[in-house]
Design a protein that fits this description.
The structure is a single chain. The protein is mostly beta strands. It has 2 domains: 40 residues, no CATH class; 172 residues. It contains no helices and 18 strands. It has a 7-stranded parallel sheet with strand order 5-7-9-11-13-15-17, with no helix packed on it.
């Protein structure tokens, strides 16, 4: 397997690699203006990301297997991730925490190839954030907790036979679009389920829910 690691930073980058049977990349970076590219292929991959600062960006595609981004703290950050771009993405677990204002998240699971069993937890604390979460996964459990004002949230659960969304919103002037669209039940599956559970404390929020049994975007 080829491994590529390109690092450009203005101050300090510390890279630690340990010999073992597993592939490991450990990076401890401090400083501004970092551009980091990592190309990794394989199964049962685990990725932890903790970003603190202003104007940071996280992007990626072609990721297969397990992914666990951790936390983004700061304002005006961009989080852009496509999982399942070139291969199947099965048994994924993601725990994402975003704290700050004016952040942008664009997340796609099962972007091109098939995906099964996603457990996604998204916690947002801040205002004027924009989140677009598109999931095309057979079995998905999505828990989202948003605290803050003027947040814009668009979610799509598409073509799955067991879809659950638990959504807690505290904050005013939210603009929320929820699309939960089931597809064809898998063979030997007795029922397709779409479940949305919401707890909303908000003034002047606009919430639109589209829940139906036809595959395809709304």
């Amino acid at each position: 397997m080829n491994k590529y690691l390109m690092v450009m930073a203005s101050l300090l980058v510390s890279v630690m690699a340990y010999g073992s049977d597993d592939n490991e990349i450990n990076i401890d970076q401090a400083g501004d203006t970092l551009t980091l590219y990592i190309d990794q292929s394989g199964d049962t991959l685990t990725l932890y990301i903790d970003q603190v600062g202003y104007g940071n960006k996280v992007g990626g595609d072609g990721f297969t297997g397990q992914s666990t981004p951790s936390a983004v703290t700061g304002d005006s950050n961009i989080w852009d991730w496509d999982i399942g771009y070139v291969g199947s993405a099965d048994s994924s677990t993601l725990d994402v925490s975003v704290t700050g204002d004016s952040n942008t998240m664009d997340f796609d699971q099962g972007y091109v190839s098939s995906a099964e069993r996603l457990d996604l937890d998204l916690t947002v604390i801040g205002s004027t954030n924009v989140f677009d979460v598109d999931v095309e996964t057979d079995d998905v459990t999505f828990t989202m907790e948003v605290t803050g004002d003027n947040n814009n949230i668009n979610t799509l659960q598409n073509d799955g036979f067991y879809q659950t969304l638990t959504f807690d919103l505290t904050g005013d002037n939210a603009d929320v679009d929820i699309n939960q669209i089931s597809g064809t039940c898998a063979e030997a599956t007795t029922s397709c389920k779409g479940i949305i559970t919401m707890d909303v404390v908000s003034d002047d929020a606009i919430i639109q829910i589209n829940q139906k049994d036809t595959a395809g975007d709304s």
